[in-house]
Amino acid sequence: FNNNFDFKNIKPGHIAEGTDYVISQADFIKNEIIQISGTERTYENTLVRIDDIYSVIESVWSPGYLMGSVHTSEEIRNEGLEASKKIENYITKLSLNEDLYNAVVAYVTTAEAKSLKGFRKKYLDDLLLDYKRIGFTLSKDEREKVKTVLDVLTDLGLEFDKNIRAAQDTLFLDPKDLAGLPDNYKKERLQNNGKYSIDMTYPSYVPFMDQAESDEAREALRFKFNNRARAENIGVLNDILRNRMKLVKLLGYNSYAEYRTEDRMARNPKNVWDFENDLKQQLREKAENDVAEMLTIKSVRLGKNTKTIHPWEAGFYENQVKLKKYNLDREEVRQYFEFNNVTEGLFTIYQQLFNVRFEKVQNPSVWHEDVQMFSIYDKTSGALIGNFYLDMFPRANKYGHAAAFSVIMGKMTENGYQKPATALVCNFPKPTDFQPSLLTHENVETYFHEFGHLVHGVLTTSQLISYAGTSVARDFVEAPSQMLENWVWQKESLSLFAKHYETGEVIPEELLDRMIAAKNINSGTKALQQIFYGIYDFTLNDGFDPDGNKSTTDLIKELKNEITFYPYQEGTHQQASFGHLNGYGAAYYGYKWSEVYAQDMFSVFEANGILNPDIGLKYRRIILEKGGTVDPYELVKEFLGREPNSEAFLRSMGI
């Protein structure tokens, strides 16, 4: 109990064996629950034991899924993903187990069940809603059909993700095509034949789109980037949409969007449509002004009047506005964000705010030599709270984005509290012989954001694994981490870690002023881009027919042209590599939705001091520790001391 995983010595076969073992353990607990007679049912022997099943499974599922995403051995990666598939199918089977359902229903009739309060009552209500949502109010035959569709959806989702991860493509360019890019970028990508290879990873793609002067090269790179997994995933996406429609028809919902919002903060599709359409209107004027600024620069650059910014020009001209208007050079800013300094500053801020202490673990058992491990202690009591891992640099076949992966989730057991652990997986520029790891300001923001998920996971005090850490309503899960992005925009916090990597000079006040002023450059167009993603995803799941006369590509073209100010790039199929269409089906709206709550919560820090440990501790106690034990709206209200609103959000966008 509470031993760390021996990741270093993981061998082929280990994850598969562990998976079989935990499934047999879960079956054992399940049978114990089923055998209790109706009158003897209690919260402890029925509901807590159901939570125990998930705890046992989680002990292999989380680390196995992590290994499937980061391990250097293809065999172990595949085994990790196969194990995830097996476990997800098992969980589907478990959730459809009639005897377990009958056990919960039998418990509902007891006097104890009727008197439950707080998270215990919420857990019972949520279990019953979950059962309703997978068809337990239906006949046996219909339920079998539901089970089949859920299995198919699980497999299709894994296939969709796997195809995106496997999609490797490279654009080979001549030296002239790399004008505008820094020397270190070029050096790392120079081939023996004098050409440059630009791959599709973010550290390669993003700087190129922002800085390369060649419109043709950017257009070609964006074309490749937005056709990743095209051949495989267009069909898979259609299959996913067909099966979602099949599922909700069986369950009696009007659409997958209605089904998905029912157990979230949003509650129903109407609230989401109102939210998206309202923001779309509020942001329009700001976005128009953003585009006008870019067009002015483009017209001067081309020596003729122009009315359009193409999507492959957006990043470049946004960067040009920063350079011209605020003389803000991405490369100049990077000099002040050396990876180790940023890490140290982030640690200082998080430790101060949340009354914790991080301690590096010496010689940890990890899956790659780049990975570091830390323990988190409560500053007051000195007690160990949990652990975390940092896997921060790209390597072949590693998960390509930035995410916090759960390793162990918190839960109260008979042996005491199970200490949580989370792995932060990023793809920041790796230090080279030429220079240390210098992060862009966006990288720093990502780091603070993902670390927000990490502390949400590790600082949990939930008695139940079902509500531990980030196990909250899905349209709230981003809010606590989005709130923590604000510290990379405040002078008081930036002065702690933004130091020049060569001279150690703290970032100059005037550069900071320019950065903060430049923050809302394109805030309108960027937010509209997010609204476009949200509406595209929601439309696919609220009335769209994959077998109708409009394809998923037609829809992307129509909405991109209608909502954003950047016309659709002909021949691209962005949906094929848009992984969130799987995991976040009918839920992408949650990013912006949660941002509104995030900014509202940050307003409390603004009013009382952004490094104020009392407010930080209040945030830890009310928002982070509670996890999903209380409705998120109530938690936010308690933290704010009032009803939430969107004023702080619009203010943060410069509107």
TrEMBL record:
GO term, biological process aspect, one: proteolysis
Gene Ontology MF: a single term: metalloendopeptidase activity
Cofactor or coenzyme needed: Zn(2+)
Boundaries of every Peptidase M3A/M3B catalytic domain copy: 208-654
The entry's keywords: Hydrolase, Metal-binding, Metalloprotease, Protease, Zinc
InterPro entries the record matches: MetalloPept_cat_dom_sf, Neurolysin/TOP_dom2, Neurolysin/TOP_N, Pept_M3A_M3B, Pept_M3A_M3B_dom
Ribonucleoprotein recorded as keyword: no
Keyword Metal-binding assigned: yes
Similarity comment: Belongs to the peptidase M3 family.
The protein's name: Peptidase M3A/M3B catalytic domain-containing protein
Originating organism: marine metagenome
